[in-house]
Amino acid sequence: MHSYLRAIGFGNLKKESEVDKLMKEVFRDYTEKNSVKKDKTSAFVEYSRDFGNDMGITICGEMDEEGFHQEYYFPYFRGSGITTRENLVIEKQGSRESFAGVCEDARVGVSLIFYLQNAARYKKESILQQLFQQNISTTFSGLSIQGKILLPICKSEEQLISDREASVKRNQMIAKARMGDEEAIESLTLDDIDLYSMISQRIQEEDVFSIVDTFFMPYGMECDQYQILGIINSVSKVVNPYTREIIYQMNLECNEMTFDICINQKDLLGEPEAGRRFKGVIWLQGYINFPED
Fold first, then answer.
1. Is the pLDDT reported for residue 293 higher than 60?
2. Measuring CA to CA, which residue among 152, 145, 110 is closest to residue 280?
3. What is the pTM assigned to this prediction?
4. What is the 3-state secondary structure (H, E, C) of 124-148?
5. Which of 185, 166, 165 is nearest to 175 (CA)?
6. What is the dihedral of CA 60, 86, 284, 144, to 10 degrees?
7. Residue 53 CA to chain centroid, in angstroms?
8. What tens digit of pLDDT does each residue of 263-291 get?
9. CA separation for the pair 244, 237 (Å, rounded)
10. Nearest to 119 by CA among 100, 141, 94, 95
11. What is the mean pLDDT of residues 69-89?
């Protein structure tokens, strides 16, 4: 059973038989179907069904002369807007027809690895050899099964402006450092030393979450799971019509990236509001925005 089903409102599923029944409903009453030919007699097919605003379940498998053979399924939450325009590398996960994406984004400081939501479209673009011929963007989203709400850090307008300017300067330095600029590398090293010294002094008298606005860092053994702390831009409460469970969908700003997450009300400690912060663990998903045919 997929542990992140509860993030979209299926927290009461206890048995595999209940999951199998749900998958059959997705197959019978899907809202979207995508397919790509594998050979003359078979195709890779995705059946997706929404269970609320932009969230649902996708089942994937092979369709041949004998019918559909399910290989795997996953819950999804499709975000809004564009998160990044950085170049991507897509890798297949094991023997299944599922894929992980990797991108280098200077705003985060680590390689971002995400689960690809639109695998069938990616395979089709790969076959047509049209992949990444244009500037393709990616929309990130996250599913969470544990999180809490923190109060914001009180900052003046001058401090906010100063932080934005410092962030822009740092991103420019990182870009130069990637190109091999030794002066930029030295400057970044000195900045990190100063930052470490400042934190070491303040942490003796302050809580770490009053020093750190946001963060985005790998979590656990899974490569596409992250622990995040992000500022809530907006929040909406939706109800899964199948289970009547309440889901919070939040738009976050984290390390200057903007993306959406969803979490079951049962798994969230605190009341989310715009301006407050969300801290939790997410399964990062990504949707590649291919140009329309």
1. no
2. 145
3. 0.87
4. HHHHCCCCCCCCCEEEEEEEEEEEE
5. 185
6. -130
7. 16
8. 999 999 999 999 999 999 999 999 998 87
9. 12
10. 100
11. 91
